[in-house]
Amino acid sequence: MSRYVVSVILDGENAWEYYPDNAYHFLSALYQTLVEHPQVEMTTFSEALESGVRPRHLPVLKAGSWVYGSFSTWIGEPDKNAGWDLLVDAKLTFDKVMASGKLSEDEIRLATEQLAICEGSDWFWWFGDYNPSGSVKDFDQLFRRHLEKLFILLGENRLNNSPFHCLTAVGIWRTPAPCGVIKPETGLERGLAYETKTSRRIVASHLLAVG
């Protein structure tokens, strides 16, 4: 491996919006081309460091998103701020329960993992007035169910009672018709997106169990 490492970091859903079949063909061809290219060696960050590549100091790291170069894609609008209020309430509850010492090691592990899911930044990207209302509704419901599951794992079976409705989005949500029968492979070696591509759309909020 040479001195230079090029990071291929894709914001996957953007490709879904602009390429046929949710970018299935595009992404497959891209990955295959990279793997077979004679001048490209596919690796991971860990493998690159183990191979002897020397990291260099980055003197400046810009805070914000590649969208507008600020945090506005995640916070600032009323709906986004309401989502953060729910998350803050959940984090304060998490801290209180952790300090009480009442959870076992396994319970702490599960609750910590669930908190990390709730803290995913892109929940708040979906909230606001620039996404289709159907999409916003799905992510609103899924976000709430993840919070609810966190409270259950903490032994606090409740969700913040403050109203939180993100349905101020614009646009019309159109669901493409299925184009084939789903035939998942054992183990989902290639990932859920590949095995379920014929369904056109999977509502994630219907797949999450909170019990």
Summarize the structure.
The chain has eight helices and no strands. With 211 residues, the protein is mainly α.
Task: Please characterize this protein's 3D structure.
- By secondary structure, the protein is mainly α.
- The chain folds into 2 domains: 1-61, no CATH class; 78-206, no CATH class.
- It is built from 8 helices and no strands.
- The protein has helices spanning 12-18, 24-36, 45-50, 78-100, 105-118, 122-126, 133-153, 192-195.
- Helix 5 (105-118) runs antiparallel to helix 7 (133-153).
- The chain starts with 11 loop residues before the first helix and ends in a 16-residue tail after the last helix.
What gap, in angstroms, lies between the N and C termini? 48 Å
Helix content: 40-55%
How many structural domains are formed by the residues?
2
Query: Largest beta sheet, briefly?
Result: none
Mean pLDDT, nearest integer?
77
The residue ranges in which pLDDT falls below 50 over 5 or more consecutive positions are: 160-175, 200-211
Structural class: mainly alpha
Please trace the helix and strand order, writing H or E for each element: HHHHHHHH
Treating each run of at least 4 consecutive H or I residues as one helix, how many helices?
A: 8
Rg over C-alpha atoms, rounded to the nearest angstrom: 21 Å
Strand content: under 5%
The coarse silhouette is: extended
How many distinct beta strands?
A: 0
